[in-house]
Structures are given as C-alpha cells and as structure tokens.
Specification:
single chain; 304 residues; alpha/beta; 8 strands; 14% strand; globular; binds dihydroflavine-adenine dinucleotide
C-alpha cells in the first residue's frame, strides 16, 4: 500500500517541483543524496573511498523533455569523468537514458550515451546504464548491446530480479560479456511482467546472482538484503570463486555498517552516490522501499 503511494508520488510533477525548490525538502533528501553540486559529490566519493570502498556517481535527473536539458545532463557526466580522473578517485558513473532524451528522441539519447562511453573509455572508467520502468527494458538493453560492441567492457546494464524476463536477459548479456548490475527493481510493475510476491523476487535474485558470480563476467550484486548477501558469500566460498570476481553494490546512506564489514572481509564494495537538485523521484523510490525511513527522517528533522 505505502509502496504504491510513494511510487505514485514519485511521478507527481507538482509535488516534484514544489519539493525540489523547498529548503525543507533539500534538507530531508540529504539522508540519501550527497549534496547538490559536482564538487560535493566528489568530496563524498573521496570520503567513501577512504573506507576502501569504490563509488558510482549518479547525477540525478530523469524524464527530460527537450534536447538542451539532455545536453546539460550529459555535460555534468563529462565534468564528472574529467574530475574522477584528475583527482584519482576510485569511481565510475551511472546514468539514466530518460535523462539523455530517451522519452522523446532515442537516437539523441544514444548519441549522447556514446559520447559519454567514449569519454569513459579515454579516462579508463566505466558507464553503468541504470534500468528504469519496464516500457524501456528492451530498448535499454539493445542500446547497451550496441554501445558495448563499440566499447567492450566500458559500459554495462542493470537487470531487475522482479521481472520474469530477467533470467533470459541474464544469459543474453553474459553471453556477450556485458557486465550486469543485479538489483530487485524499484518501479511499479504489474503481475503480467513482474513477480507480485517479494519472496519470489528474492528467490529469483539469489538464483541469478549465483549465475552471475560464477560467470567470467564481472558483475555487481546490488542489494542491502543481508540474507541474500550472506548467501552470496556462502556460495562463492563453497564454489571457490575469487572475491575479486564480482562486487557488492549499495546505495549511499543505506547500511553503511554492512558496506564496511564486507570491505573489511576483502569483498569489493561500490557505493552508488546520487547528487544534484533533481532528487525528488529518487528520494521517493527510497521511501517506497522502506517506509520506516519516513519515521527516521521525521525524528532527525525535529531533533536538529
Ligand atoms: P529489500 O528492499 O528487500 O531490502 C532489504 C533490507 O535492506 C531492508 O530490510 C532494509 O534493512 C534495507 N534497505 C533497503 N532499502 C532501504 C532503504 N531505502 N533505506 C534503508 N534501508 C533499506 N533499481 C532499479 O530499478 N534500477 C536501477 O538501475 C537500480 N540501481 C541500483 C543501484 C544500486 C547500487 C542499488 C543498491 C540499488 C539499485 N536499485 C535500482 C534499487 C533496487 O532495485 C531496490 O529497489 C533497492 O536496492 C532495495 O532493494 P534491496 O535489494 O536492498 O532489498
């Protein structure tokens, strides 16, 4: 119930523009968002690196409606890649296709992404194309496949274990050597496309995670689910899979204790750091995942 309400709110334009302009909103979003500027994000990345943890930087924004906005989004990624290289930060970048114009001109989005991937290749970095709602799954995977054909190993995809199609997509991408980030999925999807029961989403996650970590392709296991993390650790130990064959990925501000513990145990860990003024839809999806966060935020808000 609450999940659906927050997901519906995440798409509400009036609430979005009101919240993103309000001081209170910006303050609350600080729980999950590492500041509004490139510089603040880079500082947060350096801080996370100091714990032996890698980073993926995400300039927040999605569903842009015109080319100048898409170009402005891309410009931030080019600045990020320059700064990551100049400052020697252990980071790559994550970007959404709807931020690059996918909703109104997919060819433009592809040209923009190809430029970012080329820049990442020159800067010895990597671009992860985030996965959005299911109406974009196939188009996103096709684009990642074409980009990968030009820049092998410099671009990767995200698959969501809540979708029935993901098992076939796992084999499809692994077969081409495309790096995958596996997550559960953060959008609202119907029962014709996605497992309605969380237990099935979790079961599918574990099944596909095993396949990915055992493959020769370096994949990211993106979850804060401690039972699943424990199962992956057990599985790799049982099969003699090297800890360096994959990495765990978690979100900025979520389960820092687990992030640090895994890093201390010698696993690769990467934290996804979002930043920027367009934080509202991202923030609402985090509340949808864990409505108890609202209570946590309220407590901290009144304490300050
Ligand atoms: P689950 O939701 O079952 O939570 C397990 C436990 O984790 C909870 O009990 C709680 O302890 C903790 N937890 C989870 N979410 C929390 C939160 N917001 N605040 C506090 N604690 C929380 N999705 C997508 O559709 N496309 C994408 O591209 C990405 N990209 C992505 C990158 C990375 C690095 C991560 C970690 C996640 C994503 N996601 C995503 C989001 C993902 O699909 C999913 O919605 C969240 O990760 C929550 O699912 P969990 O696997 O953590 O499990």
């Amino acid at each position: 119930m609450l999940r659906s309400a927050f997901l519906a709110l995440s798409r509400n334009q009036a609430m979005r523009s009101f919240s993103e302009r309000s001081k209170v909103g910006r303050r609350l979003s600080g729980r999950f968002v590492a500041g509004m500027t490139v510089d603040e994000a880079l500082q947060a990345a350096e801080q996370v690196n100091s714990d032996g943890i890698a980073v993926s930087l995400d300039s927040l924004g999605e569903s842009v409606a015109a080319e100048p906005q898409a170009r402005a989004s891309a410009e931030i990624y080019h600045r990020l890649l320059d700064q990551i290289q100049a400052r020697g930060i252990n980071a790559n970048v994550s970007a959404k296709l709807t931020q690059m114009g996918m909703d109104f001109d997919p060819a433009l989005a592809e040209r923009i992404m190809a430029e970012i991937v080329a820049h990442a290749t020159a800067a010895d970095s990597f671009v992860r194309v985030d996965m959005e709602g299911s109406e974009l799954t196939e188009a996103t995977l096709l684009m990642v496949e074409r980009l990968h054909a030009q820049a092998h190993g410099r671009v990767g995809a995200v698959l969501q274990s809540y979708l029935y199609r993901t098992e076939a997509d796992t084999d499809r991408l692994l077969g081409q050597g495309i790096r995958i980030r596996l997550c559960k999925g953060a959008y609202k999807e119907g029962p014709s496309l996605a497992f309605p029961a969380k237990a099935d989403v979790d079961r599918n996650y574990v099944k596909l995670a095993r396949r990915m970590v055992a493959s020769p392709v370096f994949c990211g296991m993106a979850t804060h689910d401690e039972a699943i993390v424990t199962e992956i650790c057990r599985f790799v130990q049982e099969k003699g899979i090297a800890k360096s064959a994959f990495e765990f990925q978690m979100l900025y501000g979520v389960r820092r204790d687990l992030q640090r513990r895994l890093a201390a145990e010698g696993f690769g860990v990467r934290v996804y750091i979002p930043f920027g003024t367009e934080w509202y839809p991202y923030f609402m999806r985090r509340l949808a995942e864990r409505p108890a966060n609202l209570l946590f935020l309220a407590k901290n808000f009144f304490r300050n």
